[in-house]
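Weekly structure sync, notes
Attendees: PL (lead), two postdocs, one rotation student
Agenda item 3: pending single-chain targets
PL asked that the sequence for the first pending target be pasted directly into the notes so everyone works from the same version. It is reproduced below exactly as submitted, 256 residues in total.
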Amino acid sequence: MPIELYNRDGHQCLMFTDLCQEGDEVVQSNQFLVIDGDTGAIIDPGGNLAYGELYLAMTRHFAPQRLSAILASHADPDIIASLDRWMTATPSAKIYISRVWERFIPHFCKSGKTDGRIVGIADPGMRVPLGRGELIALPAHFLHSEGNFQFYDPVSRILFSGDLAASMGTGEQAQHMVSQLASHLPRMEGFHRRYMVSNKVLRHWAQMARTLDIQMIVPQHGSPLRGPAVREFIDWAERLECGIDLLSDRHYRVPD
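Predicted structure, written out during the meeting:
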């Protein structure tokens, strides 16, 4: 069953956490459905392991044929490997992804399926129309992908943050909201130090994030953050050394 993150006045946000039942060999991932009135958008729809269960679960709440947008934070397989099947299931939904990746998208699909359906997002981001309002594609480049976007919903005030704020664990663990960051950090820190590119980028992101009214940060892996944990995460990320900050010449040696 999905987690209902928000439901008010015809606007609904749903989170699916446990559609892949493949044990330790597969990273846990979340998929999201945002509905406004009679249309909707799916965010980071996932790989082929998630497609069947996600499609069936979605039909209990919303007809997939009515989707107007498929939003991809970046082009990793756990985000869009199922795209060929979504192109069949949705007659006209547009695919929104960074311009860095738009010419790679057809490689996930049979020839011709994506013709006229890809919207490349320029580096500064854009506003994506959805029903009576919009979702905002926010720059999150190098967190962790070269072309990377997060999606902010001004109605629910949820930031769908992609890999940033991710934590490692099971689908059951992902269903628990985190309101205090300290006890949650052991599930986050190693991932962020390895996958985020640099502290410089995190500082730029934190400065942008503080301009938004964010009630919840919901990553593609692991538990949502809400309440005090939102501000605590922004502060923590701003100070984090990661990626190339941690490299030295000893990491670049010919193996014995």
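Discussion points:
- The radius of gyration is 18 Å.
- The mean pLDDT is 93.
Action: rotation student to compare against the earlier draft before next sync.
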